[in-house]
Design brief:
Blueprint: H1 2-5, H2 14-53, H3 68-71, E1 76-82, E2 87-93, E3 96-116, E4 141-145, H4 148-155, H5 159-162, E5 168-179, H6 187-203
Antiparallel strand pairs: 1-2, 2-3, 3-4, 3-5
C-alpha cells in the first residue's frame, strides 16, 4: 500500500529516541520527588499533630540541655521533641545516628546502666563504665556501673524487668537516658518511651 503511493516508513532516529528517553526520565524523577516529598510531609504532619495532642514542642534542643554523658560526645542534634517531662532527640555522633530520651528523675544516681547484650554498638560505650558479669545476662543486658554498690542496687530493683531487651538505660546523676536507636524515631515510639521512662522513674529504689 505504501509502495503504491510512493510513501515509506521513516528510519530509526537517535534524536527522537533520545528526546523520548529524556522525557521519560524527567517524568520519573518528578514522580519520585513528589512521592518523597509527600512521604516526608506526611511524617512531619503526624509529628506536629502528636506534639499538639501531647503538649509537646518541636523547638530545637540545645547541646547544653543534654545530660553530660551525651553532651560530652559533642553530638549534632538532628531532630528533637520537647515533652512536658522529657526530651526526645535524634543525635548524630560521627557517622552513627542515635535515638534517645532524656529526663530528670529527681534523685541522684552513681553512673549505672543496662546495655543491650545483643547490640554491637551503644551510645553508652564511649562512657567506658565497668561491666559487672555477675549482674549481667547474655540474652538481655550487660549491667554497667561506676560503683559496685550501685550496680547491685540496680540489679535487685524491678527496673531491669521493665526495660525491653532492645532499649538501653543509663542513670547518671539526676538524669535518666533511654537509648532506643533500634526503634523508629516516630510518634508511636515516642509514646512508648515516655510511658517507659515514667514507669522506670517510679520503680527506682
Amino acid at each position: 500500500m505504501l509502495a503504491a503511493t510512493g510513501l515509506s516508513l521513516p528510519g530509526f532516529s537517535w534524536v527522537v529516541f533520545g528526546s523520548l528517553l529524556a522525557i521519560f526520565l524527567s517524568s520519573a524523577a518528578v514522580f519520585f520527588a513528589l512521592v518523597h516529598r509527600l512521604t516526608r510531609g506526611r511524617a512531619r504532619v503526624e509529628l506536629v499533630e502528636w506534639a499538639r495532642e501531647h503538649r509537646a514542642s518541636l523547638r530545637p534542643l540545645h547541646l547544653r540541655e543534654l545530660p553530660p554523658p551525651l553532651a560530652g560526645q559533642l553530638p549534632e542534634i538532628r531532630m528533637s521533641v520537647r515533652a512536658p517531662r522529657a526530651q526526645l532527640a535524634r543525635l548524630a555522633i560521627g557517622e552513627k545516628r542515635w535515638n534517645v530520651l532524656v529526663r530528670k528523675t529527681g534523685h541522684e544516681w552513681i553512673p549505672s546502666g543496662l546495655r543491650p547484650a545483643t547490640h554491637e554498638l551503644s551510645v553508652f560505650d564511649a562512657l567506658q563504665l565497668p561491666v559487672y558479669p555477675a549482674y549481667s545476662t547474655a540474652e538481655r543486658f550487660h549491667l554497667m556501673s561506676a560503683d559496685n554498690s550501685a550496680a547491685r542496687k540496680l540489679s535487685k530493683s524491678s527496673t531491669r524487668a521493665l526495660v525491653p531487651a532492645d532499649v538501653g538505660l543509663l542513670l547518671w546523676g539526676e538524669w535518666l537516658v533511654l537509648d532506643f536507636t533500634h526503634r523508629p524515631f516516630d510518634p508511636i515510639e515516642f509514646g512508648r518511651m515516655l510511658a517507659l521512662a515514667e514507669q522506670i522513674v517510679h520503680s527506682l529504689p
